[in-house]
Amino acid sequence: MYPFENVFLYLYQNISAVEKKCLDCGAILHGRIDKKFCSDQCRNNYNNKLNRDSNNFIRNIHGLLRKNRRILADLHEEGKIRVHKDALFALGYNFNFFTHIIETSQGNIFHYCFEYGFRETDDDFLELRQNSQYLEYQ
How far apart are the first and last CA of the chain? Predict the structure, then answer.
């Protein structure tokens, strides 16, 4: 009897020692040795569970940014150039979420939410502006 025959006999009798199981449902895997999932459904389910928290966080942030943009766009389309800060707050604008900041050569700082932005003036009013350069980058 060859020495490796004992290993094969042991593995044959204790096949569960080498059986791999699906990471999602725990089913026994057949086929390739590096297989991790028994089906595409299990693979998708596993990865969706893994990324659920980060996806929800990003979805919530994106929702806030879209709401801010919609508020600024509606005001801009109405022809508003100056709006009181409280009016923007009353419409549901969240001042903590914006996409970028641009400082002009005159030193004015504009907070943008995509292509619509504003700068604060001394009297608690906001000067609204649309940045057409943002659209050219698309």
Answer: 73
Range of the domain at 106: 64-136
pLDDT, tens only, 118-132: 999 989 899 999 987
Q: Is the pTM of this model over 0.70?
A: no
8 Å CB contact between 118 and 98? no
Alpha-carbon distance 48 to 37, whole Å?
14
- 44: in domain: no
Dist. CA 28–CA 15, nearest whole Å: 11
Instruction: Please give the tally of structural domains in the chain.
Output: 1
Phi-psi category of residue 10: left, alpha or beta, with phi > 0 → left and psi -120 to 50 → alpha:
alpha
Q: Has residue 55 been placed in a domain?
A: no
- Please provide the size of the chain in residues: 138
DSSP 116: E
* Cα gap 37→42, rounded to integer Å: 6
In whole angstroms, give the CA distance from residue 122 to residue 49. Answer: 49
Mean pLDDT of all residues in 3-28? 73
- The reply to whether 13 falls in a domain is no
Tokens 């969240």 map to which residue? 94
